[in-house]
User: Fold this.
Amino acid sequence: MRRWLLAFLAAVSCCNALAQTDYPAKPLRLITPFNPGGAIDIYSRLVAEPLSRRLGQNIVVEAIAGANTILGTQALIRAAPDGYTFMITTMSTAVNNRFRESKIPYDPDRDLAPITQLSNGAVLLVGPAKAPFNDAKGLVDWAKAQNRTVTYGSWGIGSWGHIAGLILQRDLGLKLEHVPYKGDVPALNDVQNGALDLTFASPTSAKPRISAGGVRAIAMTGPQRSAAMPELATFTEQGVGNVDLAIWVGAYAPAGTPRPIIDRLQRELAAVLQLPDVREKMLAQGQTPIGNTPDEFLAAQRSDVEKWGALIRGFGLRLD
Assistant:
């Protein structure tokens, strides 16, 4: 029995060593669970190019949008846990989605292997370019004067954009109706063409339209102004509380991926985040790079599950 156990441990050690030395031996697949051309898709491609050079293999970015990241996550967990498929996504995947009323088709704790928390970021609220308001107070006054429900968009049910709108509705006494989209780009399109009153969006997606005069920025969520748009005041600065949480972007592999491969991906991703051009572009997108270890990422995720769970339950939010 002892001899068998020693042989087994030696085999595991050998496999781990091989995983470290032979990996990667073929191209990798990077899933982004949002629309092509959206903020996270652009973000993923920004990371993929230098990561590909460091790993010595091509990385194919595949956008699988829908259901607030659920469709892309399903594709990830169906993939072989061999290190050749991973995903870059928002915190909705592992935090917000677990608080839906209906059961989601995956278990964030059982099915996902955290690699690294890539960055913290914020989103902004935008309205039409010709809107009769340009700040939070003006928006509140305008919304209360309407003889109808004001519509607002986000990138999915249970997303930070959805929850932020519900908080504004509750705290400010507004009549708002949430309209979920598969990403912030189509929501911005509808604000610009008049089919939607407001939407939450990332600086990456919103800035070109703001510069072109298609939409107007109202306020930034998060605890502080974004480096991407330092001229835009936060909701807190404008006297509106409870929308000051930061959101994050993280990388995950399918559960069961060998730890040496997880650690290798974490090290390489952390190195990519420190590249001056990548860091500069991330800051311009409103993202502050992190690159922590898998264990640190898991601890941060667990803390946010408690924090967001308390928020959702405290406000009585229904995420379906």
Observations:
- The chain has two domains: 27-120+247-315, 124-220.
- The domain at 124-220 is CATH 3.40.190.10 (D-Maltodextrin-Binding Protein; domain 2).
- The two ends are 53 Å apart (CA to CA).
